[in-house]
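Lecture notes, structural biology module. Today: joint structure prediction for complexes of two components.
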Amino acid sequence: MKNLDNVMIIDGMPVEINGEKNLLELIRKVNIKMPTFCYHSELSIYGACRMCVVENQRGEIEAACSTVPKSGMEIRTNTERLRKYRKNILELLLSNHCRDCTTCSNNGKCKLQDLAMRFGIDQVRFPNTAAEPKIDDSSVCITKDAHKCILCGDCVRVCNEVQNVGAIDFAHRGSKMSISCAFERPIADSPCVGCGQCAAVCPTGAIVVKYDFHKIWRALDDKNTKVTAQIAPAVRVAMGKELGMEEGENAMGKIVAVFHRLGFEEVYDTSTGADLTVLEESNEFLKRLSEGKADMPLFTSCCPAWIQYCEKNYPELLPNVSTCRSPMEMFASVIHEEHKPSARKHYHVAVMPCTAKKFEATRDEFVLDGKNPVDAVISTQELIQMIKESGIIFSEIEPEAVDMPFGTSTGAGVIFGVTGGVTEAVLRRVSSDKSKTALAAISYHGVRGMEGIKEAIIPYGDRRLKIAIVSGLGNASALIEKIKSGTHYDFVEVMACPGGCVNGAGQPFVAPDGKKQRGDGLYAADKMCSTKRSEENLLVMDMYNGVLKNRVHELLHTNYVKRGE
Amino acid sequence: MTEIRVCIGTSCHLKGSYNVLQTFQQLIEEHGLHGKIDLRASFCMKSCNQAGVTVNLNGEKYNIAAESAYGFFEENVL
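The predicted structure, tokenised, for the full assembly:
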């Protein structure tokens, strides 16, 4: 029986209210595509863009995102007045907006462009009075172009609320208002950690991921350069949607095939690097436990945005951060060593779901023979751009396998791309019960799922290890405060992006339900791997007697130091 | 040259023989003993009924739990 006390009318249709927080949620539930700029279900409600306006039975106009649905309410979403209002708002936004759509890197993905088209804006009656555009390209991760900003505040809220970084905020008032770092400093000198979540939520091209793939075309065209690539686990499950496959579908084979066609001589899977990380991190963890240094947890170090966040905000925790390099840097060091004897130049490209990796690849800590072993980092979005530019039809290409000598990886490495994956991989290594039931038990101990903070207790010998898994830097700082006030953990995994690398800012933007599909895609890929545990990767075990002999510390570890003032 | 053989037969595998191998590997690297110790995996050493992973150190068989591999190496090998 439907509860008739809880019904409201939307465009003449009776709709049951079922605990929705605002009108907008309810309107979208009945399949009306309500336009918005400033509404994201994970963020607080701001009500700035006024695109989601509705008209009630008294003829009043209110924003659906900030109105609570009540029984008996009657609203219309598409009246003459509302259309006129929306068009006027769009026209005013466009009047001060850079309209160089064809040369904007967000061309085709821009909400402003999309809505202008949807509402048929064919002219802008107002002159552009905005000051000369200020482009901030000081950061290696993102570019901010004030001229394309519509002041919806999405970036400000994601930076403050979700990530607790607070690098950007509104500055000045009225028509002079802009998004800025403190004291109008460039982004590179701000507390920004390069996670890129601001670029992920930006509805226009005002904050975009910096594109580096032009360098790669140049290297590929040079006959004297051997170009190799590594592909991160999270990339394979996010490519499909934009290139005609399902969200979360594993496209690894196709990506490898495309890379071979583009002229890459060797293509590897970063999961192999992740196996190295699992072994090194587990060793470090077990050593700390046996030395009784268990007063404070060991924090993972795979996420470069988390590392920067820790360096800038919690330098006192740095001794507790694992000394392991990230899988990308570990693997790149090994690949670099392998190519050193060759007379040809070697150029190594990493395809990552991440914007912060671009910064990681400029760090001095990892320099080998005068340069960082990663020459260029490109995001998944850039890879899609490269494929489109090359004219290769992705859906038609036959999948291929990764190359030797680093062609084997395990399921433990593959799940690194999703929150809880690093922990699960380490637990598979640390656990001394190697049976199939034990393997399945680890995944049911609370390490899987898209929640921001997860906890698990795992038996180890006669001890019980307490583990925390956080994604989203806001959750990380909440957990750190909890640890400082006395809660004990043995191991803490941190990933800066909510849900882990699969939702990194370098990935194509995805709605909340698509995030889980990507994670599930990686767990499905893990199931297809015959080896599930990193220590059973014989290729990696062999490295310890070969390239890594006596050089484990030099090639795989580092020390992070305090940054910023 | 010290010879160490770690059993990776089915029974020892389930009891964590790769954990033992990894620990030894790490300790060899840490102490720089690459030239002095010959560490290898081996198939079944016919001690499946014993508790723990079978390790053959210079011809002598030991059965150790994966968690105590660290202590074993420090006591018996170093």
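Point to remember: The longest strand of chain B covers residues 2-7.
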